């Protein structure tokens, strides 16, 4: 697996994926998006990984957006290609069969905020800053910002943030529900790892099916959503881990999930 701008580290059951272009504040160019796609393909295959942390190299930035220098002179056709590439990668991440925690040290702007929103859970440092500043560049958010931000923070706040391009700090992001937790910068990775390991102690297939039920169920009406949940609930009963989890409870012993 040859990567230029993304690194993948495995710590027992947890993968740490780092966008590594600190000189450009980890801005997403097409090379980086392709690397990210390659890493996600690897994560999809690895059955020994139960949770993923996505972060940016350096303390200053998670991801400062799509690469403006690369985008500046794109033709309509190239713009479309870039958009499709990014959207496919973000969607693949969102649908990855493992929970993904974004660990956000600093700037999460434009495509960076959108990347964080394609993750399941967001932990931010006290220094993190968030914005969808695209309108100031003459474009709309293009990696799902107009769709995921209102789903996370509600219509009114999303419209305010997107129409103004205002940068908000971590405490405000926490207040509006854009991030789950704010921690001191020096504790960021430790907190993300603690959370990832805690999730990884649970039955991985059940966690995967919870993600599927939440992601699919929230896209349809409640009558269909309940069926999505029932389908995923049913699937648990074909797993050894369901027998193990319930067996361990009845027998009052420690459980030992095998991801089977
Ligand atoms: N792209 C490319 N390079 C960037 C960058 C970016 N988004 N952000 C920062 N850099 C680079 C800077 O150019 C600079 O490079 P050098 O000049 O040193 O070579 C280096 O990172 C350090 O940045 P600064 O010198 O500016 O650092 P400061 O601390 O002074 O400022 C800043 C930090 C984050 C406030 C500032 O860099 C900044 O405003 N950056 C741009 C933030 C931004 O507007 N981000 C949103 C980008 S728009 C699409 C789908 C999605 C998108 C577009 C299309 N389609 C569907 C087609 C997404 C769009 C976006 O994300």
TrEMBL record:
<dbReference type="InterPro" id="IPR029045">
    <property type="entry name" value="ClpP/crotonase-like_dom_sf"/>
</dbReference>
<dbReference type="InterPro" id="IPR018376">
    <property type="entry name" value="Enoyl-CoA_hyd/isom_CS"/>
</dbReference>
<comment type="similarity">
    <text>Belongs to the enoyl-CoA hydratase/isomerase family.</text>
</comment>
<comment type="pathway">
    <text>Lipid metabolism; butanoate metabolism.</text>
</comment>
<dbReference type="GO" id="GO:0018812">
    <property type="term" value="F:3-hydroxyacyl-CoA dehydratase activity"/>
</dbReference>
<dbReference type="InterPro" id="IPR001753">
    <property type="entry name" value="Enoyl-CoA_hydra/iso"/>
</dbReference>
<keyword id="KW-0456">Lyase</keyword>
<dbReference type="GO" id="GO:0006635">
    <property type="term" value="P:fatty acid beta-oxidation"/>
</dbReference>
<dbReference type="InterPro" id="IPR014748">
    <property type="entry name" value="Enoyl-CoA_hydra_C"/>
</dbReference>
<protein>
    <recommendedName>
        <fullName>short-chain-enoyl-CoA hydratase</fullName>
        <ecNumber>4.2.1.150</ecNumber>
    </recommendedName>
</protein>
<comment type="subunit">
    <text>Homotetramer.</text>
</comment>
<dbReference type="Pfam" id="PF00378">
    <property type="entry name" value="ECH_1"/>
</dbReference>
